[in-house]
Amino acid sequence: MSSTSAESTEQTVRIERVEWGDDRAAALRAAMDDEIGPRYAELQAALTADQQELRASAFVLDPATLAGVYLAIDSDGTPLGHAALRRLETENGVEWELKRLVTIAAARGRGVGTLLIDAVERDAVANGASRLVLQTGIKQPEAIALYKKLGYEPIAEYGPYVGKVPEGLYFARALG
To answer: How are beta strands 131-137 and 93-103 bridged, if at all?
Structure first.
């Protein structure tokens, strides 16, 4: 496990590399799903069963494709956020993708998301990536604002999302 730290407004937050199956990581992903899922309920309900299945297939993640999973941990041991780096085979060759970025509501505004993205970007560069791509949704303005603030620019849909995620937005940032 590796870890880095940064001073927040009140406490130190450390970034810890963990396994995908880590209970804290799984709990943060579940919390993200619970928060974000209802935002898309109306859109999901409007899709046919076939469209719903196709959309769901875009989000299947094989943990074997992950190059790193990161948790942001508060000084008291509380997990504050999660992010992962995925190696993805696409129509353009190998892409490195930021996956499952989440910051718990109580920690937003403390720079946790930025710390996690920094960790993912460093790992992507160490793996030879020249850019990092990501997928988010139209009903996640907090995430969209963060990505734009950090220099991510809109791109066309890619890889597993092509033609499957009508609410998807796609971004990339050059690394190095």
So the answer is: parallel
Which domain, by its residues, includes 121? 3-174
pLDDT in tens, 143-164: 999 999 999 999 999 999 999 9
CATH code at 98? 3.40.630.30
How many alpha carbons lie under 13 Å from residue 98 in its C-beta half-sphere?
A: 29
Phi first, then psi, for residue 156 (nearest 5°) are -75, 160
Q: What is the mean pLDDT of residues 128-151?
A: 96
Burial 2-37 (b: 16+ CB within 10 A, else e): eeeeeebeeeebbbbebebebeebeebbeebeeeee
* CA-based end-to-end distance of the chain: 24
Burial of 144 (0-12, 13-18, 19+ CB in 10 A): middle
Interaxial angle between packed helices 141-149 and 112-126, expressed in degrees from 0 to 180 and rounded to the nearest 10? 60
Q: How many CA atoms lie within 13 A of 154 on its CB side?
A: 6
Tens digits of per-residue pLDDT, 80-102? 999 999 999 887 789 999 999 99
Please tell me the total count of domains within the chain. Answer: 1
